[in-house]
Amino acid sequence: MIEDELLKWKFKAGNKDALQRIYEKYRDYLLTLAMALVNDAGLAEDIVQDVFVTFAQSTGTFKLRGSLKSYLATCTVNRCRDQIRANNRRPFSLGEDTPMQLDFCPPDRCMISDEQSRQVADAMALLPYEQREVIALHLNAEMKLRHIAGLQNVSISTVKGRYRYGLQKLRSVLNGRL
Amino acid sequence: MKPSEKIENVVKKMSFKAGPEMDKNLWAETLKARNEFQKTVLVPSQHNIWRITMKSPITKIAVAAVLVIACLTGVLIFEKTSGIALAEVLDKIEQIKTYRCRMSATFSNKDIDNMTVSQSTVLMSQTFGSKMNIEITHPITGESMVQEIYILPNKGTITTLMPNQKKYSQVNYNKESADASQQGMNPQDILEQILKCEHTSLGCSTIDGIECEGFRTTDPSFTGGALGQATIKIWVDVETKLPVRMEVNKGNEQKGLVQIALTDFEWNIPVDAADCEPVIPDDYTPGQPMLQMLPSGK
Q1: Which residues pair with B129 in a beta bridge?
Q2: In angstroms, rounded to a whole number, what is the distance separating the alpha carbons of residues B106 and B118?
Q3: How far is B33 from B28, CA to CA, in rounded Å?
Q4: Which of B165, B218, B274, B283 is the most buried if burial means most Cβ atoms within 10 Å?
Q5: Which residue in the set A1, A31, A117 is minimally distant from B111, CB to CB?
Q6: What's the pTM value of the predicted model, to 2 decimals?
Q7: Residue-averaged pLDDT of chain B
Q8: Backbone phi, then psi, for B152, in 5-degree steps?
């Protein structure tokens, strides 16, 4: 997109407004992606903050020939992986008595979402991480399966398999809930 | 809808948004990181910024279009014509000795709304030549660059002053070399193509408070292919029979639309030789202009 190309150049030139526009444009997109991957409002906020802080510090040295959107999504995915590995966090189980963390947030600090989004995030948390990542990147981040295969360093047929199995499991989990 | 498609749609619709406090914190941390880092980063030099300017495809398109339209305007004003539908207008234009107008180039698409890329003032004199002040706004930094271009047909010179850099350029040109290098783009060729174009009436409308009749052509031969497929509109004052507004629209909203507009026409204004004569300040040094109106005869 032409706007993103302008924003990239402008950001590289040190323009604060460009950074703010990028932040506003992709903030919720990255939060949704992070929530799809970690299903934890606090952790998702930390991850997105880390992505933007690191991005903001790349002013002047920033070089990107490809899509800004994909770049930020990839940064988010990498941090999600790091966080999951470092914290050894496990996704919330989808028990009726397991409230999502965001329910404990003060209202003005919470993420804003609808009930269906919370249910889908809960359901995705039950998937193996690789399957969840493929689904989130393909459906939420709008990445092509070939690109995801490169990110996961596996063949495209493996990615297709993960996607198919992930969808099947989601369907069985969400069946009757939505 | 297949079950898998339904699930895909449900996942696609998943949305989480930052609440006000989260948003405030996220942006505050981002800005803080940026400000701390900025203290240690060198600001790109002015030289680099201008190099970026001409690498911008938007600027290039706008600059190219401005130059073509400038040329075209001169054709419309000063060349003898024998059109039919616009004959009355062209009769009036043939009587014009001088004029001044403004020219602007804007860019729009679904994300950008009317970003002004360049603005110019054009002064044309059939006797003395022409002077054009062009201000190009950097599409990224918002900085502007100014060039003054003087074309003196009697002397065969093109002089460009670059106040930002305190530089100037002066080249000689002759009609033969310009014709050879601008085959299909010289005024005569353009004029012939204009006269070959099919154009339609847009009816009457009020433009800038003036009752006008509009004409339009989409014939790609209009500019000898220089602008490719474009829509050209001319609005003419029904009383004076002189143009009030001329537009060239190229592209579309999806891919990007460049609009060049010539407005604020002043006809037969007093112009003397000094108005078109460049004055090169003593502290200016020779340099290469970013824009070159015509190829040098050298």
Answers
A1: B125
A2: 7
A3: 9
A4: B165
A5: A1
A6: 0.46
A7: 70
A8: -115, 95
